[in-house]
Structures are given as structure tokens and as C-alpha cells.
Amino acid sequence: MKIYIRDGVIVEKGQEDRLVDTGGLVALPGLVDLHTHLREPGREDAETVLSGSRAAALGGFTAVCAMANTSPVADTAGVVEQVYRLGQEAGLVDVQPIGAVTVGLAGERLAELGAMADSRARVRVFSDDGHCVHDPRLMRRALEYVKAFDGVIAQHAEEPRLTEGAQMHEGTESARLGLTGWPAVAEESIIARDVLLAAHVGARLHICHVSTAGSVEIIRQAKARGIRVTAEVTPHHLLLTHELAGSYDPVYKVNPPLRTERDVNALREGLRDGTIDIIATDHAPHAAEDKECEWAYARPGMLGLETALSIAIHVLGQDWELIADRMSAAPARIAQLANHGQPLRPGSPANFTLVDPAARWTVEPHGLASLSHNTPYAGMVLPGRVVHTYLRGEQTVADGKVTK
Ligand SMILES: NC(=O)N[C@@H](CC(=O)O)C(=O)O
Ligand SMILES: [Zn+2]
Ligand SMILES: [Zn+2]
User: Quick one: which residues bind substrate (predicted)?
Assistant: First the structure.
């Protein structure tokens, strides 16, 4: 297949100023991540906008949405504009800042949602991710506020009173290991409440990192009733299970926690039937001092950008149409990123990635572009490799190497 490009846009044959021959590679629209932690400002030792952009481009992404739990928190126009500008300067993927729902993620007062929406960063997705917006009145107000510009609240669904001191999934393994459990109902009760609030307000709700079979069922029913809810699942919740905590290796500590095989199967089924709209990485880099310590003290979270596509291929098979929808078109739609997630045809921005489906590679934590090394896939041999990535016709990855 040949892709004809002019001024960063895909054009008809004969109108191009450059030509990309895909050879034997699979061409996918540039992947879009709705849930990325870049750690800048504040923890540039763990990740920066530039290092995270490199990891994203290498993973086949052309756009990532940067979560607001930075330091300072992205709860003002000033901070989201700074993150946006750093992304443009890095020039490897479009970095779309997510704004905080509440000031300082403290869950007490609404942040300046309108000012962030009107800023140069044009924020449309708001989230207190890392924390749940657990006050129902505040959640209602936030939904009402973003409805005006068809924005969306992305909820980290975790009833805090049910997860105090929680270390892992509450079940057979937590009982065996003697660790405090994070019960499925802590997630499900918030999702159930929030789909009802979204229905009441008539606003858009997005559920971050869905991890349980019960959550899938609630979202399925809400969608059947016409409620405007979308949902994401992470690569790790599609593959890994709670027994891994038995190793006491904090690389497997994550929020929400790894669940059971039954949950994994329900998440896969939900992703296939569209109950779960997208795969989002929840790329959560952590410095060695915060991760290579005792389980109870380790921060939750794992890397995801450079391995997401391979895990998707591993879990879903080479179903390119499904992968393009769940990892590009649908997340771009949810985030209102009009220049991403478009099919590769004349008129679309030339944002795409070329993948060698036959290649296999071994995950090397220190071989990744991220400044942190907390990948749960170390030593695993994964299918599918990103060879080239293009952002608006400019090559960001060439022969598996980032160009900047
Ligand atoms: N997923 C995690 O375990 N951690 C995330 C926060 C979050 O996504 O809740 C982080 O910022 O490190
Ligand atoms: Zn979260
Ligand atoms: Zn997150």
C-alpha cells in the first residue's frame, strides 16, 4: 500500500509532495491514549513530557491525553497551557492536557473548568484521576458544567471508604497473603452512582481503567438504557491477574488492582462487544525509589505506552479493524481530538503508524524510552513491533527509533 501525503495531509495519488510505501507492514491510524501520566511538572525524574512523548511515538501513538495529577496539579489554565506547549515543543505526539475536576484534586471545590476549556489547551476531558470525585454533589456539578461544551468527566471509580489501606484485589489471594483488600464493589458502586448522575444531568461520563466483571455489566446496562457513558480498560487488566501479587514484587501494584481471571475474561468480552469503548494505557511511570521498595510503601502504577499495542495484539489477535477502533478512532472521539483517529484516506491528517505484525520482541525495562522502568512485562516476548510512526506527515519513529 502507498500513502500519498501533501502538507501533512493524506491526498490522492499524483497530488503528493511525499510518498510512504508501507511495504509489508500494517498501516494503522496513529494510536490515541486517553490516559497517560507524564509527571511534568513536578516529577521530571520519573517522566517528562519529552520522554513520555518518545515512549508514546515508539508505541505507535500520535496523541496522548496527559492526566492532571502533576505537581502543581493541572487545575488552572496556566498549567494546562504549559503542558500543551511542552508537548508541541517535543513535537513527537500531540499532548492534550486533561484538567483536574477539583482544586488540587482535593475533592472539595470545582477547579476552573471553563478557563481550562477556553485556554489554548482547549481542555475537554476533566479528571481527578488518582482520586475519585466521591462527593456526589460535586460530581453532579462537574457533569452539569462540562455539558455546556460537550466535555466529559473521566472518573477514577473508587469509593474511598471501601479501600482504606487497600493493597491488592480483595479475594482469595489477599486473604492468603494477609494484605488488605480493594473490593470490586468499591469500583462498581461508584460506577452505578455515576451512570445515574450522568443520566440525570444528560452529560457525558467516562470511566477510567474498568477492572471488574461487575463494572462491565453495569456499563452494559447503562448503555442499553441510552446513558452517555464510555469506558476504558488498560492492557494490564486485560492480561494480568491478582496472583502476581504473591511475588510481593511492587511492579504488579496498581490502581485499581489486578483482578481475577473471571474479571479478565469479562473485560475482554466487554472490549470486543463495545461495552468497553477503548484501550487506554494508564501509563504510570514511577522512580525507582517509589517502586523498588516494600509492597506496602510502593506507589501504584505501571508503564504502558511502549507495550500497549503488543499486548492488544496478544489479547485480541491481529484484528486490525478492532484495534484501530479501540485504540485510535474511539479514544479520539471521546477526547474530541478531531485531527486524530481518522481513517487513512484522502483528507485525513497523515497520522499513522506502520507495524510489523510478524516481529516479536523481548521487553527490556532499561531498553524503553521512559525514564522509569516499572514495566510488568520484563522478559516477556511480545508480538508486533512499531517500525515507523508519522505525525502530520513527519516521521517521529524510523526503523524502530525515535527521530528526536
Ligand atoms: N494507576 C495507578 O496505579 N496510578 C496512577 C493513578 C491512577 O491512575 O489512578 C498514577 O498516577 O501513578
Ligand atoms: Zn486512576
Ligand atoms: Zn491513571
Answer: 37-39, 69, 255, 286, 300-301
Q: What is the mean pLDDT of residues 177-201?
A: 98
Question: What does the domain layout of the chain look like in residue ranges?
Answer: 30-347
State residue 27 phi and psi, 5-degree precision: -95, 120
What is the Cβ-side half-sphere exposure of residue 403, based on CA atoms within 13 angstroms? 15
Residue of 94, 263, 282, 356 with catalytic role: 282
- Amino acid found at 85: R
On average, the pLDDT of the chain sits at 98
Pick the CATH number of 30-347 from 3.20.20.150, 1.10.3720.10, 3.20.20.140, 3.40.1710.10: 3.20.20.140
CB atoms closer than 10 angstroms to residue 162: 17
**Which residues are 207's β-sheet partners?**
155, 231
Locus of grid cell 513527519: 394
Distances (CA, A) of 329 to 116, 137, 235, 310: 24, 32, 17, 18
**Ligand 3 center from residue 151 Cα (angstroms):** 19
Our mutation pick for probing the ligand 1 site, out of 33, 69, 281, counting the most ligand atoms within 8 A of Cβ, is: 69
Q: What is the mean pLDDT of residues 325-338?
A: 98
